[in-house]
Amino acid sequence: MKRSIFSKILALILCLILALSSFTVNVFALDEDADIDMGDDVIIETLKEVYVSASGSDSNAGTEAAPFATLAKATKRVASGGTIHIVGTFTVPADLNWADRTNILPVTVTGGTLSLASNDLVIGFNVIFKDITINGGKALYANGNDVTFASGANASAVTVYGGSKSGETLESTNLTIAGGTLGTVYGGSSVACTINQVNLTITSGTVSSVFGGNNASSLTGNVTVFINGGTISDSIFGGCYNNYTYKSGYFGNIGASISWDTSYYVTGKVDVIVSENATINTNSSSGTDKAFFAHSRHKTLSANEDTSIIFTSQTAYNNNSSKLGTKTSKGSYGTSNNLAGAGMGTDAASSADNIHIHGLTADDTADTITEGCNVTVGTEADPCDSATITLTLNKKASLVYTGAEIAPMIADVTGTLTYDEPIITYSNNVNPGTATATMSYAGLSVSKEFTITKANQNAPVLNVIDESISGRADGEIIGLTTKMEISTDGVTFNAVTDTTATFAPGTYYVRYAETDYAKVSESTTVVIEAGRMLTVTFIADGAEVAVKEVTYGATLTDIPAVPAKVGYDKVAPYWDVTDFANITSDVTVNAVYTINTYTVTYIADGVTISTQTVNYGDNAVAPEIPAKDGYTETAPYWDAEATNVTADLTINAVYTKDLPKITPADTDNDGNVNLNDLITLAQYVAGWNNADAYVPALDINGDKAIDLLDVNLLAQYLAGWDVEISTAPYVG
User: Fold this and answer.
1) Which of 39-53, 252-266, 346-360, 557-571 is predicted least confidently?
2) CA 188 to chain centre
3) How far is CA 466 from CA 472, 476, 505, in A?
4) Which one-letter DSSP state was computed for residue 576?
5) What per-residue string of b and e applies to 236-250 under the rule 16 or more CB within 10 Å gives b?
6) Helix axis angle, 675-686 relative to 708-719, nearest 10°?
7) What is the end-to-end Cα distance of the chain in Å, rounded?
8) How far apart are CA 659 and CA 730, in angstroms?
9) CA 417, 421, 422 angle in degrees (round to 5)?
10) For labeling, which of 291, 407, 429, 664 is most exposed (least CB within 10 Å)?
11) Burial code of 593-620, b = ≥16 C-beta within 10 A, e = fewer?
């Protein structure tokens, strides 16, 4: 680019806007009187509001009620972007040690009066003077910092310099007049120095005289004086100030002459830029020392000084074309300070300064700024070819929310711009919604809106734990957060409020909910499988009868019958579980059988000897049979055995009657064996009703039959035959 003017000017304006904003400062404690070296990572305890009063004390807290006594103390303790309040009048001392704190936001100095009666004020960091009087006749040096005079600042009684009092080399210095009343303002210094770039900007307020360069000394560097508003009441020189000696002539001004005492200048490019918003009052016809030039204030111009007056529009030129130099022509009668005779008239201005009309138009509908200019006065080639800057969207730029500023616009330049690249600034360009990009160039701007969309969200990454038991609904979705939504149909989603909730078996759809900054995500499908069924197992007599399946908490109604069991039927069998409601675990149900019992009764001779209860299949214990008179020769016995009892039993004792003592063949039981016995036997065999027959003796031969054989044998016995007769009585 041909020049770097407007970019620096606009940077100053942005700096001023930033400076007038409010800031928040976070601070930590350090010895409050420690030397401040911002090259080290030193953080001091600072105050947003600091008060200074001649009646205060540096041991005070620096509050309104307890102010500090020195400005040095205040500059150490004030926070970045904070405010120093001057209470009453504070006289700047000779040994003022202004804390040198680089890279802090501008500090506002306000209230009361700063007196420079005896000493200059050398600024140590970026400052805004507002609603304050600075007087005393000495000078204020910005010292290469950004210094702004805002509304209510009255510094008409002091000289203001942008440079250093010592003349040290500076990279740049920035003076901004944004309000108030000032006297003479120099962009440079009071001593010869090098400042690579001097920026003196006037946007409001009243300034008596403006010099872009030094006061009575030379400046090496480039100077830009941008008058975008306010009032200049006396003179404008883009270069340095040189003094002269006036020698009066005869009869007042007749024959008067001026000789220049010095010839200081700026080595570099000097641009005085004037907008149509500026009010310049250097057109007095009185011939007093008023002038409007880009070059230094002296007659013989330096070839090292390249000076131009640039009007930012045709209107700006029309407003000020008659104010270039004094209106008094050479040789006319004027006041004693007439500079026309010294070569400072209109002709000199025309030949010294290149005057340009910089035509700029902004089309906010088309998002373009178009420039073109021409040389009205001077020899410099046309410095501004036609060019158009279009604010366009960079197609490669993302317009999706990231949490950081999104700057998608580019300045598409057609042609060659006169000045540096346009500046693009943004508002509302972080969060989703409508953002605005503003392209500024040479005091003009166009804006373009663009939309920042919400960020995409990836579908959630989730794991599941299946239901443990069917019906328990204790499945889990691992990874749920309250930033998510959940659905059972993929259509209607509800916010996740309980990240530890449990779920029934089924298919679920989970997604990240829409936020102020992100779109709703795709959903993740998760399936919770049903748990196993609970079992109710029925066992009877060691054998599995049935296995029933139920869900968690269900009631089993299909209860199988208990199988019958032989010997266990007197009492109906039953299951040992009777409540089958709300089943929550596996259950084993056993059949309960009651064994049959039977009564075994032992009776002897009509008397119950023993009554025993015997389980099915068991044996009774037979009691001892009581003795019975007349029945002792043969042991009594029970008529049945009570083994493997399967029914009630009555068991009787069996007695055998003792046989009488008899003589064999004594059939009539008279103690003798004779013919009467034979007759009795014969009668018995013959069937006579012989009640006298002693039956036990009738069986003569012992064959257990009473018949003719017995009659025959008894007859033989009585006859003396050698025969044997039975001695065992027959009992029948």
Assistant:
1) 346-360
2) 52
3) 11, 7, 7
4) S
5) bbbbbbbebeeeeee
6) 170
7) 162
8) 9
9) 100
10) 407
11) beebbbebbbbbeeeebbebebebebeb
Query: What average pLDDT does the segment 519-540 reach?
Result: 97
| Dihedral angle sign, alpha carbons of residues 705, 708, 709, 711 | positive
Sheet holding 634-638, edge to edge: 607-615, 597-604, 649-656, 634-638
Helix (H) or strand (E) holding 137: none
Q: What is the chain's length? A: 732
pLDDT digits (tens, 9 = 90+) for 192-230: 999 999 999 999 999 999 999 999 999 999 999 999 999
User: Of 121, 100, 81, 126, whose CA–CA distance to 34 is shortest?
Assistant: 100
Integer Cα distance of 270 and 283 in angstroms: 22
Element (H, E) at 115: strand 113-115
Quick one: which of 565, 616, 610 has its CA closest to 592? Answer: 565
Name residues whose C-beta falls within 8 Å of residue 136's C-beta, 6 or more positions apart in sequence.
91, 92, 115, 116, 117, 118, 157, 158
Which H or E run contains 403?
Answer: none
The yes-or-no verdict on residue 356 having pLDDT over 90 is: no
Alpha-carbon distance of 446 to 368, in angstroms, equals: 7
Q: Amino acid letter at 298?
A: H
CB within 8 Å of 75: residues ≥ 6 apart: 84, 98, 99, 101, 107, 124, 125
How would DSSP label each residue in 182-222?
Answer: EEEEESS-SS-EEEEEEEEEEEEEEEEEEESS-BSS-EEEE
120: how many CB neighbours lie within 10 A of its CB? 18
Least confident of 266-275, 480-489, 579-588: 266-275
Most confident of 97-106, 258-267, 300-309, 449-458: 449-458
| C-alpha to C-alpha distance for 164 and 181, rounded to whole angstroms | 22
- For the cut 90, the answer to whether the pLDDT of residue 628 exceeds it is yes
Q: Helix/strand/coil (H, E, C) string of 437-493?
A: EEEEECCEEEEEEEEEECECCCCCCCEEECCCECCCCCEEEECCCCCEEEECCCCCC
Q: Report the distance separating Cα 476 and Cα 467, nearest Å.
A: 8
Q: What residues form DSSP beta bridges with 200?
A: 175, 225
Any idea what DSSP says for residue 425? E
Neighbouring CB atoms inside 10 A of 715's CB total 16
Cα 92 to Cα 119: distance, rounded to the nearest angstrom: 6
Locus of tokens 């008409």? 156
User: Which phi and psi (to 5°) does residue 175 adopt?
Assistant: -115, 130
Report for 251-255, 376-380, 551-555, 669-673: range of highest mean pLDDT: 551-555
Provide, rounded to the nearest whole percent, the portion of the chain with pLDDT above 70.
84
Read off the amino acid at residue 671: G
